[in-house]
Specification:
By secondary structure, the protein is α/β, with parallel strands linked by helices. It has 6 helices and 5 strands. This is Phosphoglycerate mutase family protein.
Length: 184
């Protein structure tokens, strides 16, 4: 499968410059983030993909949009692949708000508050990554799947720290990573 980190968000732009939480909840992509998403869709245009699994955060849904627009994909909104709750940007939007912004997606399976109440421990993200790895290892379409997720989740799944808009190939039958470095 392909793992794609969402494009640059408003949060990423400000946090990178100041290393302080700018207090932006469920941020949108910046123009650069949209460019990164479009570039990824173009670069992967010849890759056979039939399924897209995306986190319910706005920045991930916006990153997925160029793939959805250019292909016939089955789209799944998956809570397991959400970002680790550590900053204001990790406060999501209610399903009704998401449905208004993304009317072609089904958010009915999400609870009204689908993100944690407070900071999520590393062990929790590692556990979510293990559950997702097992789920994907059992799927026959894993090689034709693109997953649009976040820095901490991809780190917990693979041990790799991806930049905004970066993607990697990943085999969910591979062993989990060893020690993880939780600072970008």
């Amino acid at each position: 499968m392909i793992l794609l980190r969402h494009g640059q968000s408003e949060f990423n732009l400000h946090f990178s410059a100041t290393r302080r939480d700018p207090g932006i909840e469920d941020p949108h992509l910046t123009p650069e983030g949209r460019t990164q998403a479009e570039a990824a869709a173009r670069a992967l245009a010849d890759t056979k993909l039939t399924r897209l699994i995306v986190s319910p955060y706005t920045r991930a849904l916006q990153t997925a949009a160029p793939f959805i627009a250019s292909r016939d994909l089955t789209v799944e909104i998956e809570l397991l692949i959400r970002e680790r709750y550590a900053f204001a940007c990790d406060i999501g939007s209610a399903p009704a708000v998401l449905a208004e912004s993304f009317p072609d997606h089904d958010f009915a399976h999400l609870p009204d508050r689908w993100w944690p109440e407070g900071r999520e421990e590393e062990a929790s993200v590692i556990d979510r990554a293990a559950r997702f790895r097992a789920m994907m290892a059992a799927r026959p379409d894993q090689r034709e799947t693109i997953v649009v997720s976040h820095w901490a989740f991809i780190l917990a799944l693979t041990g790799q720290s991806l930049m905004n808009g970066q993607w990697i190939g990943y085999d969910p039958t591979s062993a989990p990573p060893g020690a993880l470095r939780w600072t970008p």
